[in-house]
């Protein structure tokens, strides 16, 4: 039997320039879905997104403290992991973020290309335990890391 694909709705994260609070907005079509409490879903997403940003900013702060030394690649793996899990939760709710990487990058305060490298890195390395803390983030980022056997 053919499985029915779930329709996904666009989600836009809007950051208030004055308060810094992020709001989630979606399409009118989704708002007309009477089987769901859309306000509750959007409220959950807003809270979840705020936690995500806080966690990532904390990890970036930790990475910045270590910048004089070799930055632990596990910090960047954790950032990628947090983002991928958030995207999965959105998918479970039937949403996707419009201009996802651009949105994340702007709200985190980094370039979109840096964010793409972090996400790509996390997708390549499935487990945190696969990383060697002795190898710098830049080697992993540039695909020049040679793992010990």
Shape: elongated
Quote the average pLDDT.
Answer: 86
Sheet/helix structural class: mainly alpha
Separate helix tally: 6
As laid out across the biggest beta sheet, the strand order is 2-1-3
- Rg over CA atoms, rounded to whole Å, is 18 Å
- The number of distinct β-strands equals 3
Q: CA-to-CA gap between the ends? A: 46 Å
Tell me about the biggest sheet? 3 strands, mixed
> Strand share of the residues?
5-15%
Low-confidence stretches: none
How many distinct domains?
1
Helix content: 40-55%
Q: What string gives the helices and strands in order?
A: EEHHHEHHH
Short note summarizing the structure:
By secondary structure, the protein is mostly helical. It has helices at 28-31, 38-65, 73-93, 100-108, 112-124, 137-141; strands at 9-15, 22-26, 95-97.
Explain this structure to me?
There is one protein chain. Helix content is 54%, strand content 10%. Strand 1 and strand 2 form a beta hairpin. It is mainly alpha-helical and 149 residues long. The chain has one domain (9-141). The mean pLDDT is 86. The chain is elongated and about 55 Å long. Strands 2-1-3 form a three-stranded mixed sheet. The longest helix has 28 residues, at 38-65.
Descriptive key words:
single chain, mainly alpha, 10% strand
How would the blueprint of this fold be written?
Elements: E1 9-15, E2 22-26, H1 28-31, H2 38-65, H3 73-93, E3 95-97, H4 100-108, H5 112-124, H6 137-141
Parallel strand pairs: 1-3
Antiparallel strand pairs: 1-2
Helix pairs in contact: 2-3, 3-5, 4-5
């Amino acid at each position: 039997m053919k499985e029915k694909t779930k329709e996904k709705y666009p989600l836009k994260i809007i950051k208030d320039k004055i308060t810094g609070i992020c709001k989630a907005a979606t399409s009118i079509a989704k708002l007309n879905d009477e089987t769901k409490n859309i306000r509750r879903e959007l409220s959950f997403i807003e809270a979840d997104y705020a936690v995500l940003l806080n966690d990532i900013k904390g990890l970036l702060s930790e990475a910045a403290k270590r910048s004089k030394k070799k930055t632990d690649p596990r910090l960047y793996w954790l950032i990628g992991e947090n983002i991928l899990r958030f995207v999965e939760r959105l998918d479970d709710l039937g949403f996707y973020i419009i201009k996802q990487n651009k949105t994340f990058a702007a709200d985190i305060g980094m370039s979109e290309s840096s964010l793409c490298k972090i996400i790509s890195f996390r997708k390549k390395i499935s487990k945190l335990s696969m990383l060697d803390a002795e190898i710098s983030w830049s080697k992993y980022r540039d695909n020049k890391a040679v793992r010990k056997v």
